């Protein structure tokens, strides 16, 4: 049995053989067919799940690559789809902080800096909330002994959000210091 995608490329291709019987008297297609079809279905579902995982991984890698081109303001957000994206965003924030923050402090007007301060403070508040939600959902999943990969993903998001809060604090402090210096 073969499954094709829209471009007519094979996603899953499996065959199964079974013995239907040795003579016409013990030939039983009705008994054997459900077992074969269930095995083929399981094979196809596994292949499609693997394809989906690869596509999601490629999308996350493309998103992380796009972060390198983003501005500091664009990188600041409170949620991400997965841990890989969250960690990539955190790394991009570090790079943007070191490369873009000095120019941002020099070139932007005080009211623009103040608006950025508000955005960062709101993001920190949202990150704290999202972190707690992820932590609670991970604890619930662990308590129910269900879907350990989900619990690990949620735990990773919790950690990434906490790290992002710590990354945003010095940026916030630098912005507030620049605003205070301008107001003297």
Could you explain how this protein is built, in words?
It is a single chain. The model has no long low-confidence stretch (mean pLDDT 85). The chain is mostly helical. The radius of gyration is 26 Å and the shape is elongated. The protein contains five helices and two strands.
Gyration radius (Cα, Å) is 26 Å
Task: Profile the largest sheet.
Answer: 2 strands, antiparallel
Ends apart, CA distance between termini: 76 Å
Tally of helical runs: 5
Instruction: Tell me the total number of β-strands.
Output: 2
Unreliable spans: none
Shape: elongated
Q: What strand order characterises the main sheet? A: 1-2
Q: Mean pLDDT, rounded to whole units?
A: 85
What's the helical proportion of residues?
Answer: over 70%
Strand content: under 5%
| H/E element order | EEHHHHH
Please state the structural category. Answer: mainly alpha
